[in-house]
Amino acid sequence: MVVGRKWVYVKPFDGLPKDENFRLEEEVFSDELKENEFLTEAEFLSVDPYMRPYMSSYPVGTSMIGGQVAKVTASRHPNFPVGAYVFGNFGWRTHCLVDPRKLPAESQPYVLPSFGRHPRSLALGVLGMPGNTAYFGFLELCQPKEGETVVVSGAAGAVGSIVGQIAKLKGCTVVGVAGTDEKCAWLRELGFDATINYRAVGESGFAEALKKAAPKGVDCYFDNVGGYISVAVLLQMNLYGRISVCGTISNYNEARAQVADPQREFVFKQLRQEGFIVTRWHKRWMEGIEANLRWIEEGKLTYQETVTKGFERMPEAFVSMLTGGNTGKAVVKV
Ligand SMILES: NC(=O)C1=CN([C@@H]2O[C@H](COP(=O)(O)OP(=O)(O)OC[C@H]3O[C@@H](n4cnc5c(N)ncnc54)[C@H](OP(=O)(O)O)[C@@H]3O)[C@@H](O)[C@H]2O)C=CC1
Ligand SMILES: CCCCCCC/C=C/C=O
């Protein structure tokens, strides 16, 4: 018998998540597995923005959703031997009994490929879902061309920091928008050509700051945040500009903002805007991971992680990420 712990969603979110939304519970697993089942023990867990809007569609009493890196501790599945490390969407739990046949195609667990000298936690970041969000969401939807100007909001986070570096690899001029001077300084170290600390310039100063940072206008916008930042970028898009709508974290904890009608920009600038969910590319998943790993090995792609230690601190790490406490990918080490 194995006793695990899990975080349960016990009260609907209202605004920023609070302690009262979560409860830590125990769960017991039998040692006797059925054919095709395997048992895991988590090593690293992910806290991601999507958990905030997605949980609202689950009933209270559901375990918190999320990805993790875990070790297989018992197995009756030939592809998941004891001792292997896997990625799985097993939720906020220390242990999990898995039967892959019960999971949808876009949420299949997989044994981690070798990351060489890099930590396994990267399977939750640049070598996992956020890295693939950057790789596919930017390259497929923005179709960047050498010499173009790219703006990335949420630029110092898990997705944005990778998007900006890929844009530099494609020969673009890159402007990053982030919430502190320290984050902006890191982005410039990564090769970003200009940065805007949106908290420092404020809503009223943002359009002017963007004009200075992107004097030739904007050809591609990778939007992680929505809200006034995105309205201002839209108004400075160039003819035939492309916008990849990845997320709207500025309003995950609030009612939706009322924004000005943007249709005129789309007509006269002939813009293209497309939203996406990264699992759209689940059949090409390993292509994104391999490309990002190759760039890391070649010294062309750099990552950073913000690691919180202790499974009991999952809610704290989640709220910290939602309020800008992370640089690069936010993960929890059990
Ligand atoms: N479409 C898809 O398939 C996917 C979408 N996403 C989306 O991508 C975005 C980034 O995710 P991810 O990289 O994992 O998270 P991050 O690592 O970027 O962490 C979230 C960051 O959001 C920033 N932020 C918080 N509030 C605001 C605000 N009001 N305005 C602007 N920025 C804010 C904070 O940085 P700061 O200090 O700069 O404010 C914070 O660090 C999210 O919107 C997420 O939902 C992520 C994965 C897949
Ligand atoms: C099966 C779970 C996959 C998670 C996909 C996350 C998509 C994120 C959307 C917005 O943040």
From TrEMBL:
GO cellular component: cytoplasm
UniProt-annotated location(s): Cytoplasm
InterPro entries in the cross-refs: ADH-like_C (IPR013149), ADH_N_2 (IPR041694), ER (IPR020843), GroES-like_sf (IPR011032), MDR_fam (IPR045010), NAD(P)-bd_dom_sf (IPR036291), PTGR1 (IPR014190)
Reactions catalysed: nonan-2-one + NADP(+) = (3E)-nonen-2-one + NADPH + H(+); decanal + NADP(+) = (2E)-decenal + NADPH + H(+); dodecanal + NADP(+) = (2E)-dodecenal + NADPH + H(+); 20-hydroxy-leukotriene B4 + NADP(+) = 12-oxo-20-hydroxy-leukotriene B4 + NADPH + H(+)
Assembly description: Monomer or homodimer.
EC number: 1.3.1.48, 1.3.1.74
One example of a Gene Ontology biological process annotation: prostaglandin metabolic process
Catalytic class of the enzyme: oxidoreductase
SMART domains hit by this protein: PKS_ER
Organism: Anopheles sinensis
GO molecular function, one term: 2-alkenal reductase [NAD(P)H] activity
Any Pfam family matching the protein: ADH_N_2
Residue ranges constituting the Enoyl reductase (ER) domain according to the UniProt record: 15-332
Name of the protein: Prostaglandin reductase 1
SUPFAM superfamilies (UniProt xref): GroES-like (SSF50129), NAD(P)-binding Rossmann-fold domains (SSF51735)
Keywords assigned: Acetylation, Cytoplasm, Fatty acid metabolism, Hydroxylation, Lipid metabolism, NADP, Oxidoreductase, Phosphoprotein, Prostaglandin metabolism
Similarity section: Belongs to the NADP-dependent oxidoreductase L4BD family.
